[in-house]
Amino acid sequence: VSDLSTMMDVPVNQVIGACMSLGMMVTMNQRLDAETMTIVAEEFGFEMDFVNADIEESIAEVEDTEEQLVTRAPIVTVMGHVDHGKTSLLDYIREENVIAGESGGITQHIGAYGVELKGGQKIAFLDTPGHEAFTAMRARGAQVTDLAIIVIAADDDVMPQTKEAISHAQAAGVPIVFAINKVDRDAANPEKIKESLANMNLLVEDWGGKIQSHDISAKTGLGVAELLEKVLLEAELLDLKANPDKQATGTVVEAFLDKGRGYVSTILVQAGTLKVGDYVLAGRTHGKVKAMQDERGHDVQAAGPSTPVSILGLDGAPQAGDKFHVFEDEREAKSIASRRTQLQREQSVRTQKTLSLDEIGRRIALGDFKELNLILKGDVDGSVEALTDSFQKLSTEEIQVNIIHKAVGAITESDVLLASASDAIIIGFNVRPQGNARSVAEQEEVDIRMYSIIYDAINDLKDAMEGMLSPEL
Ligand code: GDP
């Protein structure tokens, strides 16, 4: 309903009214069937043309039955503050946990790799440390990570990026395992880190809480095996399953053009099994899989769930976060890829993807809004805390105000991506967007509101929540 209203530039309550006159009570988030849309559009003098209906239809996934599902390996992302040891940990795991009987570690950086532990269990790691990649994928609608390891240096403290990583994992609903790193150093004080976490309401197991944590040294390898055991334990609770006996689907991790071999794309198979010779559609690219390699540079013929492989054969470089699907015949994959390309070119009328404060006001007025997600950035801790308190007090029985991330500092690209992935509004207090943040916000249609008077910020939010915010000029 709301997309239709945006596309026709007709107020949403008029669209709702038109539906009502057809005998349908709808809310603005409701999906309409093709026939209703056609009739409603006609009312306002528009003609409906369904350009990609068949695309969605032809790639609709079939539900698996319980018997078809088998346990799959967890897919893990490593996040944390700069210099706390993310890369060192990923490197250590890559080099130490080679597949049983195989000499030599992983030689290639393909963006993801799988390891097999002594007990035979497997874990797939996304090899791009940091939450930027994680959240950029989520902003494109790809939820790949099952679990996050958050690295904190024991000779340092819980730092701004640590908090950011925690917020990003929590916003994605991904369980966290803490790796308290650098315990080989004299200055290391793991207890201090756990205390800081406890002060943030994050109680680790030693402190009587539920969150897994392990003291490690990514340099000497101390505790890393035990950390991975805890990751597997946590994964077990998630009961991760996939059907390996069907055509593969999954997500693109990275892609580049190799002068000699053409486009090389690393993909993570999430369900089904990908085979050499399959016709693949990935975002706006397509092609027949000519060859597949694992992270050791070995040719493989098939890749099942939770397996990362780099593939050759696509006619372009898909974007990280693009979904891929396998098709029976190449023509279909090709035609969808070219229609997607065409659609993207033609789509001058963009429907609103994320929420603006005005839009929230409108939805609340319609009684159709339950949660307001906010990201708060401020110049000093005092103002951030004051705003947090005031905003949280605005929560009512109908509308819950969630502060999904707050920190001192400028508004960064990573804040914008988090907002885009979580449908949040960014509130800046005496701070401005930095670097690419503004252009990314425009692209992702994220609403950034900047204030220098606390009272104004609170009033705007209150007005929006009462459904009467006047549109921003
Ligand atoms: P990243 O920015 O989080 O990826 O951090 P790096 O992995 O690049 O590590 C930053 C620095 O800390 C490097 O100089 C590492 O050698 C060092 N480092 C990482 N882990 C450990 C550790 O467990 N012990 C010690 N002593 N140094 C470490």
UniProtKB/TrEMBL annotation:
Has UniProt tagged this entry with the keyword GTP-binding? yes
Q: Where is the Tr-type G domain?
A: 71-241
Using the UniProt record, give the first listed, main subcellular location: cytoplasm
The alphabetized UniProt keywords are: Cytoplasm, GTP-binding, Initiation factor, Nucleotide-binding, Protein biosynthesis
MF annotations from Gene Ontology:
GTP binding; GTPase activity; translation initiation factor activity
Give the location in the cell.
Cytoplasm
Where GTP binds, per the record, is at 80-87, 127-131, 181-184
Is Repeat included in the keywords of this UniProt record?
A: no
Q: In the UniProt record, which is one GO cellular component term?
A: cytoplasm
Name the job this protein performs. Answer: One of the essential components for the initiation of protein synthesis. Protects formylmethionyl-tRNA from spontaneous hydrolysis and promotes its binding to the 30S ribosomal subunits. Also involved in the hydrolysis of GTP during the formation of the 70S ribosomal complex.
Report the sequence similarity comment from the record: Belongs to the TRAFAC class translation factor GTPase superfamily. Classic translation factor GTPase family. IF-2 subfamily.
Report what the protein is called.
Translation initiation factor IF-2
The protein's organism comes out as: Nonlabens marinus S1-08
Q: What is the lineage of its organism?
A: Bacteria, Pseudomonadati, Bacteroidota, Flavobacteriia, Flavobacteriales
Please name the gene that encodes this protein. infB
The shown residues of the full protein are 371 to 843 of 943
